[in-house]
Each structure stands twice: as C-alpha cells, then as structure tokens.
Automatic annotation (TrEMBL):
Keywords annotated in UniProt: Membrane, Phosphate transport, Transmembrane, Transmembrane helix, Transport
Intracellular or extracellular location(s): Membrane
Species assigned in the record: Oryza meyeriana var. granulata
Membrane topology, from the record: Multi-pass membrane protein
Protein name: Phosphate transporter
C-alpha cells in the first residue's frame, strides 16, 4: 500500500475459514499502536510536529521558508537524527534542492523543470497573437515586455496565493506536498482558463479616477506595467519568507502609488482604498469567528457522540451538500432565473452528497459496522451534559481514524473547490493590467471594458502553475505548519470557514481578502483549542507583512514608473 495516498483506501482482513471481512482500515500515514487485533493496515494522519518558528526578533536576518518545515515531522525514534540531517541539509542546499525535496525528485530533475519553465516563459509570447498583431519592432518589443510582466505577476500569485487552497490540507496530512502542488496546478490552470473573467477595466479595482489619465496613454501604459512589476516584486519577497499576503492589496498599493505621484491626490478614490484596507480587520476576524464555531461544532456533535465515527460519516454528506450548493450558486454560471438557479445549485449539492455518502459507506462500511457492534455491546455511559465551549476529549483508536479519514476526504474536496475558484478569480490581478496595457499598444484603450483574449487567460494560468511549482511550498509551510498544529478536522474547519466567508462576503459586497480570511480561520481553530495554541511570533510577522503591503507596493510602483517613462520615451 502506498504511503502517499491523499486520504484513504481499503485494507480488508479475512478472519476464519468463512473469509468474512473483519475490518476496513484507513490508509493514511504512520502505523497506529494498540489497535484492535482485527484491524490491520491502519494508518493515521500524524499530528504535525513543528519546530519553533524563527522570528524577526531571534535573528539579525529574516528566516526564509524552506521545505524543512515538512521534513521535521518524523518518527519519534529517529527524531534527533532527522533533526540533525534536516539542519545540515538546510544549511547547504540551494533553491533547486528544496524544490527537489518538495517533489521527491532529484536536483537534476528540478533543474530540468525550472529550465523548461523559463524557456517556455521566454519563447511562448513570441508565438502569441497579442505579439504578432503589432507591426513595428518597437511595438513588438513593448508587447513582449508586457506579456513577460503579466507572467511575472502570475508566477508570484502561484507562489504565494495558492497556499490559500492547499496549505491546510498539507498541514493536516490530508495531502502530501507533492500531491497538493500537482492537484493545485491542474485546478488553478483550469479555473484561470475556464472561469477567468473575459472582461476587465483599464482602471483596476476602482482605485484610480479614469478621467485623470485620459489622453496620457504612454504614462498609463508605464503605470500598468509598473504596477505588475511592483506587485510581483513584493509578492516574491513575501513568498521567500513564507508570508501569505494579498495579491489584491499588492496591485492596489502599486496603483495608488502611481496615481498619487503622476495624477495627483484627486486621482485616487480614497473611499475605495479605505474599504480595501478595512479588510485587514474584517477578513481575519470573520474567518476566525466562523472557524471557531465550525470546529466547536465538530467537537460537540462528532467527538462527544457515542459513536464518533458514525457521527462523522453522517455529517459528511450534510457538509458536502451545504458546500457544493453554496459554491455552485455563487461561483458557477447557472440559469439567470433565480428560482431555477437555486434548484440547479440544490441538485448539484444533492448529487455531491449522494456520491460522498456512497464512497464513505463503500470504503468504511465494514469498519463502521464493527465499531457500532462494539459500542452497542459495551456498557453505555450515562448521558453527560456537554457544553458548546467545553473542552472535549477526542476519540481514540479506530474511532479517531474513521473521523480523520472522513474529514481528510472532505478537506481534499474543499481544497479542490477553493483552488479551482482561486484560479478563476485571482488570475485577473495579473491579466487585467496586462490586457489593459496591450489595448493601449493596440490603440483601443479607453475607460470602457476591455476584452481579454483566451490566449492571455491561458498565459496567466501557466504563470500561476509555474510559480506554484517552483516556490509554492514556502507559503504552504506557513499556512499549514507554523500558525497552529493542524489535523484533518481542524484543517477542514479552517478551510470550510474561509470558503464560506469569502463566498458570502463577496455576494454582500463586503471588503474581503481570501488570504487574510484563511489566516484568520486557521487562528480561530487554534483559539478554539486554547489561546496558547497559536504561535504569536508567526502571527506578528504575517500581520506586519499585511500592513506594509500597500505602502511598499506604492513605493516600488513609483520607482518602476520613473524608470519606465524614461525608457518608453524612446519607444512611444
């Protein structure tokens, strides 16, 4: 049986001459001691063993996020040896060797992958219609530079923001890092290509006043390219240290800096900027509150149930029905008639719930029956009044494995949905300014809506996948390991809460950041277990990176614009 299975599979043991299946075991990570002798091959999600996070105050130089965050979780018998090896490897290994460890491949293969990505990034634009369209060599050179700038921004979105979808799954053990990266790569590209918006505006996010820049195409072009370069630069710095920051805030900060310096104070919609900045507070608080409630509900209604495994199996279809219905209604193109759209979303939710219920019964039916018989034959405990905020001890043994297996499966599904939706939504942060800049070169720029070519959407999707492949593990380490210790139930609570908050807040028009919401949701799960379960040093570093995102983006944008305007004087 493979040790890298994302959630569970079956190992059936036959007892006696009749050959009747005695148990069905979850295939997860490490062998579990002291399980009933009838249950064989049972493996479980390990609790994350996390080395203390290095902080800003503990070193003169900032620590960079590395794959060693994942390598530290090992067997207790060899913990010291593993720690020594990890330290030696961390001291002497390069970026490519870290990537090789993430994918369990050789450094030479990692080098090959990086070379192929770099070669594709430099050569594919030469064959794109957006470049061929321009006649003069100068215009082609500017179009080529624009496409590379969009790729650079998309690359950094993949390196940083994709952790929103996959970080908790890796931290809880529901997915290995390699599985998470490969799964997210497929879904992020599919979301960007299939669901990415085909319409954008020259003035992104409603931050700048369009009329201020009418008739200043050269300046506007420089500002758009500078915004991409500035946002990409700060994202790359944040990713190198494992800080999860908002790509939306990066773009907003870059455009604000450009607008103030080159358009004046009146070029910025300050109310919109205040609205975006307020998400620093609203997003993490809402995420923390909802994840706190979800995790407490799991402990109250699943952990404290007479048969926690059966309670988890019963709760899974309900959670899937709720999640798939909400996501279908909010994210997928359904009927424009409200009543029909509701029925379509409910139908999608019902189909998802039926499929999940059948999978669970097929995979865990024998084990669930076996545990139910044991519980029925045992002396029943007197009914205890368990409060919602009570500290409830979790199940143990086979019951714990059933619960973790069910919620691990749910977490993988929620991560897939979030990854697909993220690719469709956040690709616009890179592709929007890119399409607007290309429209200026084509002479069709205006404050009206601009159509984004399909090939440009695919280009943005490729950039996200490339960044995720080469650097995605860094922020995944922070989300999944360094804020608080995650298990499948905690990871599901955080991810389900974050997805719910983002969906409903977006529908209500509230200023929300998916990155900030998920970080808050992970913190909320930690707080549900006790205030000391959240690593304050990591949280302080993350919050500090949020607060400087807009100012740093603004300053970088100003610098890049000053530089580009001098260069463009020769081309335009």
């Amino acid at each position: 049986m493979s040790q890298s299975s994302p959630f569970f599979s079956i190992a059936r043991a036959h007892a006696g001459a009749g050959g009747r299946a005695a148990a069905a075991a979850l295939l997860l990570r490490h062998p579990v001691a002291q399980l009933p002798p009838r249950i064989h091959g049972l493996r479980y999600f390990p609790s994350a063993i996390v080395s203390p996070a290095k902080t800003l105050n503990s070193h003169l130089s900032l620590p960079r996020a590395t794959i060693s965050s994942f390598a530290n979780a090992g067997n207790g018998s060899s913990g010291k040896a593993d720690a020594t090896e990890a330290e030696e490897e961390q001291n002497g290994e390069s970026e490519l060797s870290e990537m090789a460890k993430a994918f369990h491949i050789s450094p030479r293969m990692a080098m090959s992958i990086s070379v192929v990505i770099a070669f594709a990034a430099l050569t594919v634009p030469l064959a794109m219609q957006s470049l061929v369209f321009h006649g003069t060599y100068k215009m082609k050179a500017l179009a080529y530079l624009t496409l590379l700038s969009g790729f650079y921004m998309a690359w950094n979105i993949g390196a940083n923001d994709v952790a929103n979808a996959m970080g908790t799954s890796v931290g809880s053990g529901a997915l290995t890092l390699r599985q998470a990266v490969l799964t997210a790569a497929v879904l992020e590209f599919s979301g960007a290509f299939l669901m990415g918006t085909h319409v954008t505006s020259t003035m992104q996010k409603g931050i700048l006043v369009a009329s201020v820049f009418q008739g200043k195409d050269s300046l506007l072009f420089a500002g758009l390219l500078s915004s991409l370069a500035a946002a990409g630069t700060w994202l790359q710095v944040a990713s190198s240290y494992g800080w999860p920051v908002s790509t939306t805030h990066c773009i907003v900060g870059a455009m604000v800096g450009f607008g103030i310096v080159f358009g004046g104070v009146n070029a910025v919609f300050w109310s919109s900027l205040a609205r975006v900045s307020s998400s620093w507070v609203i997003s993490p608080l809402m995420g923390a509150a909802v994840s706190f409630i979800v995790y407490k509900c799991i402990r109250r209604f699943v952990y404290s149930a007479p048969n926690p495994g059966q309670a988890a199996a019963a709760a899974a279809p309900i959670a899937v029905f709720t999640g798939v219905t909400a996501i279908s209604f909010a994210a997928f193109p359904l009927s424009k008639t409200f009543s029909i759209a509701i029925l379509q979303a409910l139908a999608c939710g019902a189909i998802g719930a039926i499929i999940v219920n059948r999978v669970i019964q097929k995979q865990l039916g024998d084990l669930l029956s076996s545990e139910a018989e044991k519980i029925a034959s045992a002396d029943k405990m007197n009914g205890q009044q368990v409060g919602f905020l009570s500290d409830i001890a979790g199940p143990t043994g086979a019951q714990l494995q059933i619960v973790y297996g069910v919620f691990g499966y749910l977490q993988v599904l929620s991560a897939c949905f979030m990854s697909f939706a993220h690719g469709g939504n956040d690709v616009s942060n890179a592709i929007g300014p890119l399409a607007a800049a290309l429209s200026i070169l084509q002479g069709v720029a205006s404050s009206a809506e601009i159509v984004i070519p399909t090939e440009v959407l695919a280009w943005g999707g490729f950039g996200i996948v490339a960044g995720l492949t080469m650097w995605g593990y860094r922020v995944i380490a922070t989300i999944g390991k360094k804020i608080t210790e995650l298990t499948p139930t905690r990871g599901f609570a955080a991810e389900f809460a974050a997805a719910s908050v983002v969906l409903f807040a977006s529908k209500l028009g509230l200023p929300i950041s998916a990155t900030h919401t998920l970080v808050g949701a992970v913190m909320g799960v930690g707080f549900a277990r006790g205030l000391n379960r959240v690593r304050a040093e990591t949280v302080r570093e993350i919050v500090a990176s949020w607060m400087v995102t807009i100012p740093v983006g603004a300053m970088l944008s100003i610098f890049y614009t000053l530089l580009l305007t001098k260069i463009l004087a020769y081309f335009m």
